[in-house]
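Quick one, T. Sequence first:
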Amino acid sequence: MEEIYAKFVSQKISKTRWRPLPPGSLQTAETFATGSWDNEENYISLWSIGDFGNLDSDGGFEGDHQLLCDIRHHGDVMDLQTLSVNQQWTTAHYHTGPGSPSYSSAPCTGVVCNNPEIVTVGEDGRINLFRADHKEAVRTIDNADSSTLHAVTFLRTPEILTVNSIGQLKIWDFRQQGNEPSQILSLTGDRVPLHCVDRHPNQQHVVATGGQDGMLSIWDVRQGTMPVSLLKAHEAEMWEVHFHPSNPEHLFTCSEDGSLWHWDASTDVPEKSSLFHQGGRSSTFLSHSISNQANVHQSVISSWLSTDPAKDRIEITSLLPSRSLSVNTLDVLGPCLVCGTDAEAIYVTRHLFS
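Structure tokens:
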């Protein structure tokens, strides 16, 4: 991988997302958005990398990230999914006082989009389903969870996954009329809060979560109620986890401890055994037994669920040259990665797999 380049932006960055490319596009990602937090004034900003990271005629690197525009945001940016304001739902999440109709706003902690549907979750334990062309919520589950919901993602079009502050992963099916989850999975032992979740782009039953203890958990939502695999990871909270959208044997995580990691579970790297490059520490792979998987053809089993000892090896690479303040957010698209930190810096590379 080529060097990862930093730009200091005088804002603590809480979220960043690439602008999606059309399906089948051969273009490289060029535009990304950032949101800030814990500043006197917070902003949502749109950036272009243009020729940044490409070689010029002298063998050096061209360009720099360019700020295209920004807009002031009231409060901290907790999640980021869209690049334009089409609707505003100002009271999507709120706390109500005992026996009182009055309310105070609550943080919206997660948002996911599957055009035209938008789902939000919050500190108030509420789930909202919106549509981009509707001014009001299509559906609200007021008491979805008694604890804080930290993140949400789509499992399939009518189903979503949420993670909460007591170590639970819940599946919700909007086709059902009730307000109960269709499935609950949880970590064993201590109720360690889960902060982030992502679904495998090709095998929708495979889910990754990251928690307050820095542990990476891999789940098979078809089987059992516990994680299939636990991987000792960061030394502090894991803030985001993402499968690569087109190369899902690669996974990326970032943490409060100032680290940004690339996990490689591909089977074509021979005899790699918990390797860690660029000054990091080793990571141990722990696997639970998986029932009924012996009857499934090995070619359809995700590399993240394999119980073959010869394949239970993960190569981990630290992508930042040194640790600093918290790495709060990351996003990957094609060969490009962007992340944002509390050190008021954005890091970008356009050559993930070179």
